[in-house]
Design a protein that fits this description.
alpha/beta; 452 residues; 7-stranded mixed beta sheet; single chain; Spore Coat Polysaccharide Biosynthesis Protein SpsA, Chain A; 2 domains; 8-stranded parallel beta sheet; UDP N-Acetylglucosamine Acyltransferase, domain 1
Length: 452
């Protein structure tokens, strides 16, 4: 089961209804730090280099499969995924049984839940190494919980082998005292798993098939292989303790996971040389990269963007799907909308908004301006309140501004229009025609004063 062993697979069970989310969106597609829950789990699983990743979806959540397929290049490292449909939502063992054809192609399988995005690759790699060392029929990732209410308890023999997992509603008072609990993460020897899957019986009020029952059944077989627990240790990974194994079943838990993951992202950025002035008020998603010696001030939100080195992102900036080069100054309260490309030494100031535009090297949009569907050259200065009017109600048009252009305050540039290099636009002008190189363009009515 080496790093590239073709016999090792991962199965993500994501067929749950997620009714407690109170949402039309499948639970695994709920947004978390800039990506859906399933994307975080998929990316973590793929770092283990499995030969294949299977995702179990329900018959009714076709949107999940559709979204994963549509975004596979963004979410998946390898695009090596097989979907399995669970036609009846009747338990975790049933979901795994639906994947029997998938499982038969491999020898070992790591089983993950589709709602545990905080698990870290290092944790799973250590879990995998422990399995390789002992070669059991099954290894269960467990953790100690001082308040284990609601979790399945890990019952062991004197040698430390796992005898069974007892759910809360079936536990005796003595078993309820056990603090080691089940995370819902397993590695199975697949032939051993398939030998007991069909023997699991329905139980509980919902009459479901529970994968946890496979443990007791494996122990009843006369197998040389055994079932072991691999405990998640305090301090293992950035999340440490049991929070890594936290399942997300409600919007409240989604918010809790968001906070945990956000601080992990910020910790990683600070460790790489980024200054985060106030981590508690800074929101940076997992799909964002920031260069060293950049300063991020409070109340900044950044998602799916790349920020260069030695930048200053001042208070209140909102940056989405954009690129920012080196030594750029943003804000306060600047808004970069998707496909904004801000080049070296540029400045986007107070309450300025950029959308689908290139702001050239050393150019300035200092305050209260809107630049959309535009290309600005080098050392352009845009005055306060200037806008590029890019939309006529039906179509979007481009504005092209050459190098060293000065755009006065309160100017309207009505696209499509081109302002050639070195030109100047008088304040208050509405420009509807191209402006020649090094010329002065003024388009406003003459001031009239009428005395009483």
């Amino acid at each position: 089961m080496g790093a590239k062993n073709s016999k090792f697979s991962v199965l993500i069970v994501a067929a749950g209804k997620g009714t407690r989310m109170k949402s039309m969106l499948p639970k695994s597609l709920q947004p978390l730090a800039g990506q859906p829950i399933i994307a975080h789990i998929l990316q973590t699983a793929e770092k283990l280099s499995p030969s294949k990743v299977g995702i179990v979806v329900s018959e009714k959540n076709g949107l999940l499969e559709k979204q994963v397929r549509a975004n596979i290049k963004n979410w998946s490292l390898k695009n090596n995924i097989e979907f399995i449909v669970q036609y009846k939502a009747d338990g975790t063992a049933s979901a795994v049984k639906c994947a029997s054809s998938f499982l038969k192609k491999h020898k070992k399988v790591l089983i993950l839940c589709g709602d545990t995005p905080l698990l870290e690759s290092n944790t799973l790699l250590n879990f995998k190494k422990d399995f390789c060392k002992h070669q059991p029929a099954c290894s269960i990732l467990t953790f100690d919980n001082k308040n284990p209410h609601g979790y399945g308890r890990i019952v062991k023999d004197k040698k430390g082998n796992v005898l069974e997992i007892v759910e809360e509603n079936h536990a005796t008072d003595e078993i309820k005292k056990i603090n080691e609990v089940n995370s819902g993460v397993y590695i199975f020897d697949i032939p051993s798993l398939l030998s007991v899957l069909g023997k699991i019986k329905k139980k509980g009020k919902k009459q479901e098939y529970y994968l946890t029952d496979a443990i007791e059944l494996l122990n009843k077989k006369t197998l040389a292989k055994h079932v072991i627990a691999s405990k998640l240790k305090q301090g293992e990974g950035a999340s440490s303790t049991f929070k890594q194994a936290m399942g997300i079943n409600s919007k409240k838990q989604l918010a809790e996971a968001e906070k945990i993951l956000r601080h992990k992202i910020l910790d990683k950025l600070m460790a790489s040389g980024v200054t985060i002035v106030d981590p508690d008020s800074t929101y940076i998603d997992a799909n964002t990269k920031i260069g060293k010696d950049t300063i991020i001030q409070p109340n900044v939100y950044i998602t799916n963007s790349k920020i260069g080195k030695n930048c200053i992102v001042k208070m209140g900036c909102y940056i989405v799907d954009s690129k920012v080069a080196n030594k750029v100054e943003l804000g306060p309260y600047a808004h970069l909308r998707p496909q904004s490309d801000i080049r070296n030494n540029a400045k986007i100031g107070n309450f300025s908004e950029i959308k689908k535009s290139i702001i050239g090297e050393g150019s300035k949009v200092p305050h209260l301006s809107y630049v959309g569907d535009s290309v600005l050259g080098k050392k352009v200065n845009v005055g306060a309140g200037a806008i590029t009017a890019n939309y006529d109600g039906k179509n979007k048009y481009k504005t092209i501004i050459g190098d060293n252009v000065f755009v006065g305050s309160n100017v309207n540039l009505i696209a499509p229009v081109k302002v050639n290099s070195g030109a100047k636009i008088g304040a208050g002008s509405t420009i509807t025609e191209d402006v020649s190189k090094n010329s002065l363009a003024i388009a406003r009515t003459r001031q009239i004063e009428k005395k009483p």
